[in-house]
Amino acid sequence: MRYDLLDLRLFLHVVEARSITLGAERSHLALPSASARIKALEDSLGTPLLVRHARGVRPTPAGLTLERHARAILLRLDEMAQDLAGAVANSRTRVRLLANGAALMEHLDEPLAVFLQAQPRVDVEVEELPSSRIVPALREGRADLGIFVAAPEVEGLHVRPFRADPLVLVAAPGRVPLATGEAIEFARLLEQPFVGLSRGNALQLHVEAQAAQWGRELAIRIRVPSPAQACALVARGLGVAILPAASLVQAEKRWVLASHPLSDAWARRELVVGCRDFAELSPAATALLAVLVGEARYA
User: Fold this and answer.
1) What is the C-alpha separation between 76 and 82, in angstroms, rounded?
2) Which stretches of the chain drop beneath a pLDDT of 70?
3) What's the CA gap between 9 and 257, in Å, rounded?
4) d(Cα 180, Cα 259) in Å, to the nearest integer?
C-alpha cells in the first residue's frame, strides 16, 4: 500500500488538534477535502483511525500506531532534507539535544566542547526542558537525544547512564551541627529557612513536593534563578538549600560552604541519556552519544 505524505501530515495535525476542522486548517485544506482524505485512509486500511464524538476526535489503537509511524517517517524526511541542505551548504549536519537544567548547567560544557571540536561539520542544537517533558518529546521524535533524570516512566525509549546527580544539603559552616560528610534526613531540615530556586523550577518543585509528603511547606526566604546565586546567599547565612552536588564544584571555589549528602532515596538521582532507538540514530547523533557516555576519546 502507498501512503500519501500529505495524508500523513494531515492525520498528525488532526490527532494533535483533536479536531478534523483544526487539523484541516493547519494542513491548509478545506474541511470537505480533509474529511475525504481521512475517510479514504481509513477505507484503504480497513479500520477506523479516529473515534468521532461531540467535542472532536481521538485516535483508535490503530490510529495511535499510525501516528507513531507517521511521526517517525516525517522526522526522517525532515532529517533527510536538513542533511541534504547541509551537504549543499558545506556538508553540515545538526543534532538536536534536550537536557534538563542540572545536566545543562553542570555536566555538558566539556563533552559538548570535545564533540564540537572533533566534529567541525556538525552543529548541536541544545534546548533546556524539565525531565518530565523530555521523555514525551523523545517519544514523539522531536529531538535526537535527551538527558533527563532516570525514572520508571521511560517505556518506549532506549537509555544509557550519563552521570550521577545526587542532591545535597548546602549550608553555611556550623549552621547545621553535622560532622564533615555526615548524611542527614531531609525531614530534619524542615524547620530551617530555605534559599529556593525560581518558581516552576523542576528541582525546586521536586524538593517542595518532598516537604509536602511530611505535611509541611518550606520556609523559603528568597528564590533565585540559579544554584550559583543560591550558594552565594547560603554562604551569607540566609538559609539552607537543596542543590545538585555538581553545582558546588565551582561554588566552593568562591564561597565557604558546608555540604552534606541527603540520606533520602529520592535524593540519589541518576541522569540518563535516551532516545527512541539507538540503532536508528544518525551518524552524527551516534557520535555525540558516544561522547556523552564516555565511549569516545578524542585527542
Assistant:
1) 10
2) 1, 85-91, 296-299
3) 54
4) 8
- Domain parsing of the chain, residue ranges: 5-70, 93-158+273-292, 167-267
**Among 286, 125, 263, residue whose Cα is nearest residue 187:** 263
214-271 pLDDT, tens digit per residue, is 999 999 999 999 899 999 999 999 999 999 998 888 888 999 999 999 999 999 989 9
pLDDT of residue 299: 44
Q: Does the domain made of 167-267 have the CATH classification 3.40.190.10?
A: yes
pLDDT of residue 175: 94
**Which pLDDT value is given to residue 222?**
97
Q: What is the pLDDT of residue 124?
A: 96
Domain spanning 93-158+273-292, CATH architecture? 3-Layer(aba) Sandwich (3.40)
pLDDT reported for residue 74: 87
In angstroms, what CA-CA distances link 16 with 12, 13, 55, 71, 107?
Answer: 6, 5, 14, 11, 34
CA distances from 282 to 42, 50, 82, 138, 273 (A): 32, 33, 12, 15, 16
Domains 5-70 and 93-158+273-292 share a fold: no
3-state helix, strand, coil in the chain (%, to 5): 45, 20, 30
Query: Strands 145-149 and 93-99, how do they pair?
Result: parallel
208: amino acid identity, one letter = E
Residue carrying C-alpha cell 498528525: 12
Q: Are 193 and 221 in contact (CB under 8 A)?
A: yes
Q: How far is CA 52 from CA 66, 68, 188, 212, in A?
A: 17, 20, 54, 41
5-70 topology per CATH? Arc Repressor Mutant, subunit A (1.10.10)
pTM of the model: 0.62
